[in-house]
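Cont'd.
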Amino acid sequence: MVDECSGTDGGDDGTAALTGEARLARGRAQLARITGRSGEEVMTALADVAPDFARYIFEFGYGDIYSRPGLDLRTRMLATVAGLVCLGHAERELEVHIGSALNCGASREEVVETIMQMALYGGFPAALDALFVAKRVFAAHGLEPDAR
Amino acid sequence: MVDECSGTDGGDDGTAALTGEARLARGRAQLARITGRSGEEVMTALADVAPDFARYIFEFGYGDIYSRPGLDLRTRMLATVAGLVCLGHAERELEVHIGSALNCGASREEVVETIMQMALYGGFPAALDALFVAKRVFAAHGLEPDAR
Amino acid sequence: MVDECSGTDGGDDGTAALTGEARLARGRAQLARITGRSGEEVMTALADVAPDFARYIFEFGYGDIYSRPGLDLRTRMLATVAGLVCLGHAERELEVHIGSALNCGASREEVVETIMQMALYGGFPAALDALFVAKRVFAAHGLEPDAR
Amino acid sequence: MVDECSGTDGGDDGTAALTGEARLARGRAQLARITGRSGEEVMTALADVAPDFARYIFEFGYGDIYSRPGLDLRTRMLATVAGLVCLGHAERELEVHIGSALNCGASREEVVETIMQMALYGGFPAALDALFVAKRVFAAHGLEPDAR
Amino acid sequence: MVDECSGTDGGDDGTAALTGEARLARGRAQLARITGRSGEEVMTALADVAPDFARYIFEFGYGDIYSRPGLDLRTRMLATVAGLVCLGHAERELEVHIGSALNCGASREEVVETIMQMALYGGFPAALDALFVAKRVFAAHGLEPDAR
Amino acid sequence: MVDECSGTDGGDDGTAALTGEARLARGRAQLARITGRSGEEVMTALADVAPDFARYIFEFGYGDIYSRPGLDLRTRMLATVAGLVCLGHAERELEVHIGSALNCGASREEVVETIMQMALYGGFPAALDALFVAKRVFAAHGLEPDAR
């Protein structure tokens, strides 16, 4: 898996001087780096119901939080996978972020270990459901079971 | 912070042949390495109500899950912090595992970044409460604010 | 959107003297006013598994709680939408009550604002999923995107 | 532990004809049988903030749900303990209902088994916290550790 | 409903001397007794993503927890149903364990009573969704509505 | 209760051109209007652990979300109370926002109605705990029980 995310710690504290437009651009670039997608799908999906919510995802989620230095993106995405397993209900988001974890340099094995560990905190059903989501994502990424 | 956890990936798959006694010993050793405590407090606290539960924590939690190879302990503990923030109600366990994360080589900054990021998934109140727990743990570990 | 709910604050405290039959009738009337449906679907769906549960929904949910004075129905339904977003798992109920909110005089925009705000408390995935539910409900109600 | 609850299955379906006053009386009697308390504390505590909420607890919670035939009270209270452990945040209610479980004929051991089992579903922190609540309740009931 | 589970309290405390292999065998036997299935489906489903997780479900879930004496299996399964309703998101697991409850001697009515009661703790939407799951399980088990 | 919040709908869409500094100023002003506090406590409390998190609360929470037009602040705060009750674990935040609801023109009665209604969705224990929080807030605001 090529790590597309090596440049992620270049974020900086100069947020106070950024205009919203610059935050948005920063966020969209970071979303692309993390998820390997452009974010057009979420913009399109929200366009006729809550376009500003797509903007907040870009600006705050990716532009502010995920652009922060201080923690590498591989660890950030595994932490997100862990959190989503414990929430229990966020299957769609879990699917996206398992893909992001792989995209940011986490191995298939590391994703599986993170999910299994959450059985201790979020319970076995949450972990089991998440493993089935992971299985689908691995298949979509062409990751062979043997390759694990 | 000295990393006491560097030897953690030495776990192995030979679990099937282990007796319960050996799993228990493995788990208690791993708990000590991760938390920097002996686990006596939890044994004592549970002794007259559910002594077997302490055994399961050692055997399954630390002996099976946290002894697995495939993910380093620093990342494991940050994932646990993330999961506990999203659960929302596990303040006591969060306090223990923020300490474990520090003990396993995570920096104060990495713990804070992990918690802040969870505002996106578990909400701002859960993250805010967790930051106050972290503040207490950092103080107990003698980590100066400036040292961040 | 015609407000069918203007008469809702006519509820009263005389519950103590009501028979169960009267509470049931009050509840079914209030359910019809709020949801714009008769409640037959839920009665039919529960008829062969837990018919009393349908009765409790009518009697307690609609007859006791939603018949109380002291808070207008538009606000009640937006509060319910907020609560359901934070629960995270109640997609079916969310769909019904977004419809009820519209039926009780909330605008499409007010529903969207309520859901987006909950990203702060129940997290972004819960809010995002709820926005997609809202989009389906708006479409079913023939509310044009432009009409927002 | 004397089982005060043996008469609980005498509930009936004749609810439809009951006035609210009769439901309230039925509920208060059932609450006393289950919890071994009169319910005055909750009435007093809610008197100046939400007196009707105390009434709903009596009428609906104890008068409707807990007065139903079809499941014995000992099992009902263990099911409630299980549910409250999985909710994770309901410590006060858990304390009351562990007491109710004992009062309805569950043994100390059965309460502990129920809680430990929930580690599989609600996670270890929720079960561990609940065991500490149970320990306090057992002590308050004068149940010796050895007596287990 | 034939009670296949009457022998379940034959579990014992001699876990410390068991090898992992013996725990696994004990767990698989207990799983078969409780669920009426062999557990092959979960092994197959997890085989290429997390085979060890299937092993933990057998060893820890069924071999350790569900093999404990001190609480009969019928009550254990109703407690599990209660816990899963309150979690809210575990529909798949709920379906399996409603079947297990029936298999362990709980009646259709007892399952329904347990779920309805959880409306008090996990809310009405969680209970309502669970009743619909139960309806499907009852149909799959050929339990006639009238037979209730 | 004087409504300090009447000017809240003056927010606008011109966010894209705002610098972070301007968003921060807008957020702090809105926080003061809503909570009746300056926000200094949270800044001070977070200063040595996560000062940027205080900034995000101001900028995103109050500057972006709570500054949006399209929903009046009284309804916004009651929706927040509803959401926090359903989360179950956010007692501290609930205390702050019950105060904010009163500050934004909601009556004591409306707060109580909102909380009681959430018993249907988040369960009775969550609603009961929230009523006790509300009782403390009402007392701190000098709202007499009789004044309800």
